[in-house]
Design brief:
A hairpin with a 6-residue loop joins strand 2 and strand 3. The mean pLDDT is 93. With 148 residues, this protein is α+β, with helices and mostly antiparallel strands. The longest helix has 13 residues. Helix 2 packs across helix 3. The protein folds into two domains: 41 residues, Winged helix-like DNA-binding domain superfamily/Winged helix DNA-binding domain (Arc Repressor Mutant, subunit A, Orthogonal Bundle); 82 residues, 2-Layer Sandwich (Alpha-Beta Plaits), CATH 3.30.70. It has a four-stranded antiparallel sheet with strand order 2-3-1-4. The protein is built from five helices and four strands, in the order H-H-H-E-H-E-E-H-E.
Length: 148
């Protein structure tokens, strides 16, 4: 079984859209017996193609939902500065994604807070205390017509 054959791609597609689908329903959708389908899913999990399953949360109902993308530039591109920033972002619950990127900045963060006042607090008390930062540019998401 090749991890990228059409059946596996279909299994992956189905699971991306509904990770809670039963094995019997998944097998029906991809045209396999339940036992063959289960073997393929287990192999995809074992080989790390499927890394895990998650719940998609409506953060606005939990007091979040205000999304800001933050472009962060470092004053120097030293390894210890990158590691310090990454550690700080891992500790910050507001940072839901942190990406090291190429280009004129070093990181793009996806930050989620309750509102603009909460973002200002994060900007001042978390980002503003990182000595390795050179620049911070904030982009407030107006809407998210497509997200995974």
């Amino acid at each position: 079984m090749h991890p990228t054959d059409q059946i596996n791609r279909n299994i992956i597609h189905q699971l991306e859209h509904d990770g809670r689908i039963s094995n019997v329903e998944l097998a029906e959708r991809v045209g396999l017996s339940p036992s063959a389908c289960l073997r393929r899913v287990q192999e995809l999990e074992r080989t790390g193609v499927i890394k895990g399953y998650k719940a998609v949360i409506d953060r606005a109902k939990l007091g979040g939902g205000f999304i800001v993308f933050v472009a962060v530039g470092l004053s120097q591109q030293r390894k210890n500065d990158q590691e310090a920033l990454e550690r700080a972002m891992m500790r910050a619950p507001e940072v839901i994604e942190c990406h090291n990127v190429s280009g004129s900045i070093e990181y793009i963060l996806k930050v989620e807070v309750a509102d603009l006042a909460a973002y200002k607090k994060f900007h001042t008390e978390t980002l503003g205390t990182c000595p390795e930062l050179k620049s911070i540019t904030s982009y407030i998401a107006m809407s998210s017509p497509k997200e995974t």
